[in-house]
User: Fold this.
Amino acid sequence: MVLSKPDNKHVLKAFDLSGKVAAVTGGARGIGLEVARGLAEAGAHVAIIYSTSKDAPTTAAEIAKTNNVRCQAYQSEVKDSKMIEDTLQEIAKDFGKLDIVVANAGIASHYPAEEYTNEQWKEIIQVNLDGAFYTAQAAARIFKPQGHGNLIFTASVSAILVNVPQKQAAYNASKAGLVQLARCLAVEWVDFCRVNCVSPGFIATDMLSVHPEEWRKQWFSMIPAQRLCDPYELKGAYVFLASDASSYMTGANMVIDGAYTLP
Ligand SMILES: NC(=O)c1ccc[n+]([C@@H]2O[C@H](COP(=O)([O-])OP(=O)(O)OC[C@H]3O[C@@H](n4cnc5c(N)ncnc54)[C@H](OP(=O)(O)O)[C@@H]3O)[C@@H](O)[C@H]2O)c1
Assistant:
């Protein structure tokens, strides 16, 4: 088997996701919510997977109504391999198939490296790296017998740079591990699925809203774009990676950062 090759078609048709079924972890808020919206706007039916966001079912109903697609919320936990596998299996059963999985759930914390407790270190690795792997593995167990699939990870620029002034060695290590994991899976699973990463820079979500104003000032001085990115500004990249428009792209890490990583 070789990497799947779609027929040539009009470029806007290549971006079209009509009839596809997508699942997004962390899909009820922040980046994941805008990704879910983007996929639905491109025509996909979408399952949004949440852990604590109680308004997820209402959000799903709004996405379904606005885009005339099916959208449903599923509560799960990416740290629990059985639970996330059961959730993806349930989604595939409910929707009849599963074409696209976005492993986006993630958390951040900030401690000097020498002060991490084992629990603080493990929590980050368990959600950001183990959780993404369990999601990928669960997706592959559907994609492989189905013969096709598309997996997208939300990594981070923290995979390739060291953020300052915040100290977040565990987060940065988890995201660097994720980018390398995606490369491995892209090669291993080339017969039945494409695997890519999106690595955002500073995105205006709850994850950043907790930080002190001095940190933000320092970041702006380092970002040539001179502003944060709104989560909706990322959705086109996920639609591109999820669609036939990127059919020869696998194992890539798409950095979207207002040139933050360049100077
Ligand atoms: N914001 C940024 O500047 C930035 C930059 C680069 C990369 N990222 C990455 O982008 C992804 C999304 O982050 P965000 O900025 O949108 O943050 P956010 O608004 O804090 O959202 C985090 C999402 O992850 C979900 N989640 C957390 N722990 C989970 C768990 N154990 N099981 C299942 N779901 C879990 C949350 O679900 P609930 O809603 O149910 O709580 C939430 O939807 C993360 O992987 C993050 O590392 C963010």
Remarks:
- Residues 25-26, 28-32, 50-53, 77-79, 104-107, 127, 131, 154, 156, 200, 202-203, 205-208 surround NAP (CB under 6 Å).
- Residues 16-255 form a domain with the Rossmann fold fold (CATH 3.40.50.720).
